[in-house]
């Protein structure tokens, strides 16, 4: 029985109310130019050659400041950006950022060949920056940097992991350290893998991510993967420990059996717990009887990387009853995306990742998983009322699948051991004449905003989503804000309870010019990339108020709340997908049902035995008509309810 896609249902809602047909929705007049209601710095949209005058940096919102690093292209979509920023834990005014940039935007080929890695440092909390535009110092093509601070016996110094091919011989993972005002190449990881395999274009393990050893800051644990050559099977993820005191070449080793730890194109993160454990979370595609199943796995080492636990599954493509069913009774499928991030809260791993319903990139959500909970829960989703994350661009400018409607989450853990902040990017729309119109550039490419969602109790409950960087505002430039990277730790102000985050991100006047092409949905050819334009990196320090972390369980939208039960929903009003949050003070049989205004039960949400604690049930509600409903929780002889407004 064929599933009815949630995405198609949502899009039908968007366009059905204004009398359009499927063909009408593909016409260019459904996607007008970006309205120039805000200050807009003119730009030529023409390719910029090497040596051309730099464009004027954008005037953004929320106190965002240019780090002095700029380039072209959107290569960030081929990987992730969680390692762009590092704040000195001993001095919050010392901030280091890295950025993959390019020198020559005159053509696609020149953009790629002139790719460099830049570093910039601020010693005054982000007010001013001193950039180094090429850490190699010799024009080496580099890519996908990761920055940290290493202790070489005298003080903490920035250490940049990247990949490149200095002097030929094949691409490999490299480490650059700062010496004075410049950088030196300190270490080259071996090019072949543990199985003596090289990848495409004579490449070795690339896309590095690393953490320092607590016992010796000059040693790092680095993880990398191989882009397989044509016809070659995928390799296992590689793990290694370079020792900068001994530059003899060390060998990589397989993180796990290649069957369950395959190369994943930079979609992985490594982190260290307060007690010294090292964890790795990664995304890969698992060949299951001819079917390719996307999986997110987690593995951990308690002996500084010598041995690793059997990889455990965080999530895999599966039918998920918590998402609900359609009118045919088919259970919707959750498909984990390739963008993710990870950090420890004490000894408890906290993982955030993007995922889709029914494997369609037009509708996506952000989920959180921790080992202590043993389950994933929805924390942010596309939202029509908030004009967040629903892709509605015309077929002619169909953007690559890697550029998601909502994705690229980055995580930061509060220094109080309780707060968690997750930043993510999402495409946006704005309402006009009772319909949704995409916020698009002149070429039809969608702008992005950067949002955040937070928890104040270690991930048990989550607040609503808030905008960190908008696409436009009064007295500011219109710009697409993309690829947020949070410092792994955020600070909680003891007096105001504000949570202060440090974030690096990319911004550009007009979106477009993506690194990879996608095939149009009608198979009529490749999608358009759009014009080559200059991109800029920005830093933003933002205080988040306590209200941003308030769970729906604490919002005054509950009725008849007993001392032992509580229930709430988010978002509210809701369209398409809703999260039902409920809390129990003691073990018991739990029933959660939804009733319409006539008191008729229209949907059963939960009917099972539960222990005490906080729970979230994700539910597809596209089968409910617009109106007011009551979500009723019954347990241990007590009952409470909350009002849910549906806007389908």
Key traits:
Immunoglobulin-like, 9-stranded mixed β-sheet, 5-stranded antiparallel β-sheet, disordered N terminus
- How many structural units, i.e. domains? 2
Query: Sheet bearing the most strands, described?
Result: 9 strands, mixed
Alpha carbon gap, first and last residue? 24 Å
Taken as a percent bin, the fraction of beta residues is 35-45%
Q: Please give the radius of gyration in angstroms.
A: 24 Å
* Structural class label: mainly beta
Q: What's the mean pLDDT score?
A: 81
Shape from CA axes? globular
Helix content range of the residues, please? under 10%
- How many β strands by DSSP? 40
What is the count of DSSP helices, taking H or I runs of 4+ residues?
Answer: 2
Pick out the low-confidence regions: 1-38, 431-436, 554-563
